Amino acid sequence: MIKITLLFCLCTTLMFSQRMSGTLYDTEAPISGAKIMNMTSKSITSTDGTGHFEIYAKLHDTLVFSSLFHHTKQLVITKAHLEESQVVELKKILNELDEVDLKGPISVKEMNEKEETSRVNKQFKTDVEKNPHLYRRPNANSGPIDFMEIGRRVAKLFKRKTPKEEKMVETSLTAAHLDTLFKTDPFFNDTFLVLDLNITKDYKHLFFTYCETKDLSSFLLLPDNKIYLIDTFLEYSKDFRGILEASQK
């Protein structure tokens, strides 16, 4: 009975929906492999190698366009969108610095002669303590090479403690590690989970547990390995969805 009801709802949706087509691009080239999701009907598709896409939609549906290296964009369907092929632009994600707003007049501070003299004397004293060899008189009996000074500097080098390099220990990622990652990381979040991995929030923790069984290396969390972690999630999410579909039959 449930299958019949779902089939009826699907047929009803398709009767009122139309196939919308278009091209997704940025300022430089078409975007391939981007995700287009109809948030109203929960259907999803992706662009091909030329940035072309097709998806069923009807008036007032909301489409979400997302790509790994572009800002997400939402589009509410109007009549014009269904009548002709659309061209949709996404903006690239760039490292941008926030603007600094300086307010108030710039005032010139008068110099206090005593304070400035005291500051310079302290700075001079500190420099003498840090670099005594620059202020020490040369040894007149040593000739052109001051062996005593060389001995002092070598002895000073031996007194320095060589800091130990901290080595990162490789461990296996657990479901708890992944849960923390998706709560704190600006990229790996619920939006990435739903739009890019096509996994609903209800199955999020189950997916993390599935990934834990794959014995993933903690080195994947390093910033330089971000692209490898993305590929890993894409691969395992596909396998995970296949398991879910098989279990629901």
Report on the structure:
With 249 residues, this protein is of the alpha+beta class. 40% of the residues lie in helices and 16% in strands. It has helices at 2-16, 79-83, 113-130, 147-159, 175-184, 190-196, 204-212, 226-247; strands at 18-25, 35-38, 43-46, 52-57, 62-67, 70-76, 86-89. The strands form 2 sheets. Strands 3-2-5-6 form a 4-stranded antiparallel β-sheet, with no helix packed on it. A hairpin with a 4-residue loop joins strand 2 and strand 3. Helix 5 packs across helix 7. The protein is elongated, with a radius of gyration of 32 Å. The two termini are 14 Å apart. The relative contact order is 0.08. Mean pLDDT is 78; it is low at 1-11.
Summarize the model shown:
The protein is of the alpha+beta class and 249 residues long. It contains 8 helices and 7 strands; from the N terminus they run αββββββαβαααααα.
Please list the strands of the largest sheet in the order they lie side by side.
Answer: 3-2-5-6
Largest beta-sheet details: 4 strands, antiparallel
Radius of gyration: 32 Å
Distance between the first and last residues' Cα: 14 Å
Shape: elongated
Order of helices and strands: HEEEEEEHEHHHHHH
Mean pLDDT: 78
Notable characteristics:
8 helices, 3-stranded mixed beta sheet, alpha+beta, disordered N terminus, about 250 residues, 4-stranded antiparallel beta sheet
Give the topology.
Layout: H1 2-16, E1 18-25, E2 35-38, E3 43-46, E4 52-57, E5 62-67, E6 70-76, H2 79-83, E7 86-89, H3 113-130, H4 147-159, H5 175-184, H6 190-196, H7 204-212, H8 226-247
Parallel strand pairs: 1-7
Antiparallel strand pairs: 1-4, 2-3, 2-5, 5-6
Helix pairs in contact: 5-7
